[in-house]
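Notes, Module 5: Reading structure tokens.

Key idea: the token line is not a picture. It is a compressed description, and you learn to read it the same way you learned to read a sequence, by spotting repeated patterns. We will look at two proteins. The first is printed below with its tokens.
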Amino acid sequence: MANEFPTQARVVIVGGGIIGCSVAYHLTKLGWTDVVLLEQGQLSGGTTWHAAGLVGQLRSHSNMTSLIKYSTQLYGELEAETGLATGWKNCGSLSVARTADRMT
């Protein structure tokens, strides 16, 4: 069964980067079982891998700050949930305002 490629699916996601993996993960968490993720190589091995680094917490819009907060909490939980090493290291950072406008 593992070697058989599905001939149809409710959702087909092209690309196994951070966005494609996230969409597949969240759809299955919602109970969707007919989801296929297509990736030509290793998951998160393309652009996502090259962009790995710091995940700043504060953004100019509260919705984006909330999304980043959710994401960093999820990164910390994925290893325990899946049993796969994510490499996530939760560390702090400091942002310095260089102008008076950036102080608020």
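Here is the second protein, with the sequence above and the tokens below, as before.
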Amino acid sequence: MVIATRPPRVLSVEDYRENWQPQGFRLIVIGPTSTWRQEWGEWEAIRDIVQNALDEAEAYRWGYDDEGLWISDRGRGVAVADFLLGPPKMKPDYARGKFGEGMKIASLALVRKGYHVHIETVGRELWILFLQQVVDGTAETLAALWRPNGRMQGTEFHIIGYTGPAFEDRFVVNLPRTSILTETPSPLAVPIRR
């Protein structure tokens, strides 16, 4: 995928109104400042994006293109409200994420590291960035530009500029059949709900 125009990593409200609102983008303020969760890096961010993909589908896909790393699933998509801090609704018991923070922390960590984060999901596209807010001085808070698109299924996170490892060896999914040493029937007849 080639992306012709991308917003800056730090956007002012004036820049949004002048350049991005006329293109049909809406702005959502997610909230945490750019200094939140400093211990998160690329591994933690990619781990959480993959976990979200696996909550939506039994497998995920990933790869590199001219822009960087992409991670995708064939799930139901992500609502704009899901980008707000804290879950808008309770997640099912089987979900890996519970608190509604991971996707936001992952995006924040990646933008803080200097990457552009572009998300295409069912019915919309989003650019994750920092919004420069005027307080006693200025503060950069996590935000997203979003607008409708025609995507019908799944979500794709695109980490633009990232060419490092995808950490695929750390996830026990997408295993090639040759990696399975033995198979036995599960002793569980009914899934255990937490």
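Summary for the second protein:
- Residues 10-179 form a domain with the Heat Shock Protein 90 fold (CATH 3.30.565).
- The mean pLDDT is 85.
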